[in-house]
Design a protein that fits this description.
Distance between the termini: 51 Å
Strand content: 35-45%
Order of helices and strands: EEEHEEE
Radius of gyration: 17 Å
CATH topology of the domain at 24-83: Ubiquitin-like (UB roll)
Length: 91
């Protein structure tokens, strides 16, 4: 279930209306309630992702380019995975 609400901010010469919509997304397979609008970079910060410079991100099973994280706006039902690739093994 999602709830909509609006926040109106007043300053001297302008009024800014921010629409916030609560939505359910899935992060690494776990449901999360988030406030929209929300982009991938903001989600990384909200989830306290360790070593964000080393993480790869998939949104709905497609890799998201790091330079696009700010412009990828999440929506209800999106599936986001934070992935770390590790080397290793033996011959």
């Amino acid at each position: 279930m999602s709830a909509d609400f609006a926040v109106i901010l007043h300053s001297e010469n302008q009024t800014l209306k921010l629409n916030n919509i609560m939505a359910k997304i899935y992060v690494n397979g776990e449901a999360q309630e988030v406030s929209l609008p929300l982009n991938v970079s903001e989600l990384i910060k909200q989830n306290n992702v360790l070593q964000p410079e080393m993480v790869s991100v998939q949104v709905n099973e497609e890799f998201a380019e790091r330079e696009d994280w700010e412009s990828i706006v999440l929506k209800e039902g999106d599936k986001v995975d934070f992935l770390y690739f590790m080397g290793g093994g033996s011959l």
